[in-house]
């Protein structure tokens, strides 16, 4: 009997999440095991509203699949929907599984971050509770690189490449005047500093910046921060600093907790905004020099023009490996990477029980942060370096990148 699968995307966008979707579609077609491959529009929330599309009809040749692979953000759209447990709201599960039964779904794939893996876990729990044969497989993605069960996450390498390139360009910008200056770059990372650590990849044969790197894994002290800048200014005119949005003081309070811009998302996570501005005011008061803060914000998520080829290729393959895992009749697993070697860079594709992944965070090991708490170690640099390698050839039309249309998401 032919199989039918359905795929959803959830959480924040990345450069590589569509590459995983493309990998699933490609492998499903090549396996000749699937009669239908459906895509949820706007994740699990859209599925509950009966919104989905036929992906085999849309992506009926290799050129279209390759174009999807090189399109940033999320072709299927996303949602920030917290699925309740079936013990708290079984009606929602009854409705979901009725839709899956009507479509004769055998395999369910969900591409996303930590909260998305929580959804996979809850659906698999209910499937086991009612003895459903549907296989639920999670495929990781997040620029934060904070998922357990994998060496790194699809989407992170490309965002890291963007961060490194942007900081190198900021360095060039800051050097043109004979002025003392401090530039503070605020980078995403609520509890894990992987993306901020990637700023170190901007260093090359003529550039040592960022001069200071501050991560949420260690306590941030304002007085020490200013003392660190004083030390750098003894040897340099222009100081460039990379700081995570999630840095916090010795009491565990985020620096921007009192910011008038503080908001929370659907999962209760604080949406940080203002760390860079707060530090900018602090530095200007102390030094009285030219100070600028830059918040990369969403710019680091979907910059396909500077994507990592390594990231895109791995993301495509991990999608195809998810099909193989489902064909082995595995359920309740999350796909992942296992690092075999840094030199040469080599990985293997693995899967882990979703219960060991969902609602856990993988932070930077403290031994990968220097003793001063203001830089990374060589071990972390060597972990990061392979993930940004290789360039992606982006097709251009009328002077701007030509991506696969997302017009269907406007409806």
Automatic annotation (TrEMBL):
Q: Tell me the Gene Ontology biological-process terms attached to this UniProt entry.
A: fructose 6-phosphate metabolic process
How is the activity of this protein regulated? Non-allosteric.
The record's subcellular locations are: Cytoplasm
Which branch of life, at top level?
Bacteria
- Respond yes or no to whether keyword Hydrolase is given for this record: no
The record ties this protein, via Pfam families, to: PFK
Q: Where is the active site?
A: 144
**Record-listed substrate binding positions:** 142-144, 188-190, 245
Q: Name the site position(s) for Important for catalytic activity and substrate specificity.
A: 115
**Domain (Phosphofructokinase): residue spans on this chain:** 6-291
Q: Where does diphosphate bind?
A: 12
Q: Which reaction does it catalyse?
A: beta-D-fructose 6-phosphate + diphosphate = beta-D-fructose 1,6-bisphosphate + phosphate + H(+)
Molecular function terms, GO-annotated: 6-phosphofructokinase activity; diphosphate-fructose-6-phosphate 1-phosphotransferase activity; metal ion binding
- UniProt-listed Enzyme Commission number(s): 2.7.1.90
Cofactors (names): Mg(2+)
Taken from the UniProt entry, a GO cellular component term is: cytoplasm
Query: Subunit arrangement?
Result: Homodimer.
Q: What does this protein do?
A: Catalyzes the phosphorylation of D-fructose 6-phosphate, the first committing step of glycolysis. Uses inorganic phosphate (PPi) as phosphoryl donor instead of ATP like common ATP-dependent phosphofructokinases (ATP-PFKs), which renders the reaction reversible, and can thus function both in glycolysis and gluconeogenesis. Consistently, PPi-PFK can replace the enzymes of both the forward (ATP-PFK) and reverse (fructose-bisphosphatase (FBPase)) reactions.
Protein family (similarity comment): Belongs to the phosphofructokinase type A (PFKA) family. PPi-dependent PFK group II subfamily. Clade 'B2' sub-subfamily.
- Protein name, entry field: Pyrophosphate--fructose 6-phosphate 1-phosphotransferase
Q: Which organism is it from?
A: Faecalibacillus intestinalis
What phylogenetic lineage does the species belong to? Bacteria, Bacillati, Bacillota, Erysipelotrichia, Erysipelotrichales
């Amino acid at each position: 009997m032919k199989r039918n699968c359905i795929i959803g995307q959830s959480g924040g966008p990345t450069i590589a999440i569509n590459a995983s979707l493309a990998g699933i579609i490609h492998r499903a077609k090549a396996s000749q095991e699937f009669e239908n491959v459906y895509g949820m529009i706007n994740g699990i929330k859209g599925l509950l509203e009966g919104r989905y599309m036929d992906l085999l009809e849309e992506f009926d040749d290799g050129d279209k699949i390759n174009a999807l692979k090189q399109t940033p953000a999320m072709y299927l759209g996303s949602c920030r929907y917290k699925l309740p447990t079936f013990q708290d709201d079984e009606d929602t599960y009854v409705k979901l599984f009725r839709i899956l039964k009507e479509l004769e779904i055998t395999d369910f794939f969900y591409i996303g971050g930590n909260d998305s893996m929580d959804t996979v876990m809850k659906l698999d729990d209910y499937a086991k509770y009612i003895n459903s044969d549907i296989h639920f497989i999670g495929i990781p993605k997040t620029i934060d690189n904070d998922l357990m069960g994998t060496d790194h996450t699809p989407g992170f390498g490309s965002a890291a490449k963007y961060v490194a390139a942007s900081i190198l360009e900021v360095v060039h910008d800051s050097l043109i005047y004979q002025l003392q200056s401090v530039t503070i770059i605020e980078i995403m990372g609520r509890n894990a500093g992987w993306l901020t650590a990637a700023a170190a990849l901007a260093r090359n044969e003529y550039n040592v910046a960022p001069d200071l790197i501050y991560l949420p894994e260690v306590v941030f002290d304002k007085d020490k921060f200013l003392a660190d800048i004083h030390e750098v200014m003894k040897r340099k005119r222009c100081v460039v600093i990379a700081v995570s949005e999630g840095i916090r003081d010795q009491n565990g309070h985020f620096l921007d907790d009192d910011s008038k811009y503080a908001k929370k998302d659907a999962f209760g996570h604080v949406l940080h905004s203002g760390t860079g501005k707060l530090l900018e005011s602090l530095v200007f008061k102390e030094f009285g020099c030219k100070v600028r803060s830059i918040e990369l914000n969403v710019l680091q998520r979907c910059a396909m023009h500077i994507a990592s080829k390594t990231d895109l290729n791995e993301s495509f393959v991990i999608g195809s490996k998810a099909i193989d895992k489902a064909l082995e009749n595995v359920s309740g697993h999350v796909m992942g990477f296992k690092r075999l070697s840094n030199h040469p860079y080599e990985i293997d594709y693995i899967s882990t029980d979703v219960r060991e992944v969902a609602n856990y965070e993988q932070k930077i090991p403290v031994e990968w942060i220097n003793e001063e708490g203001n830089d990374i170690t060589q071990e972390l640099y060597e972990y990061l370096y392979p993930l940004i390698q290789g360039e992606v050839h982006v097709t251009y039309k009328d002077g701007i990148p030509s991506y696969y249309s997302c017009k269907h998401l406007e409806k």
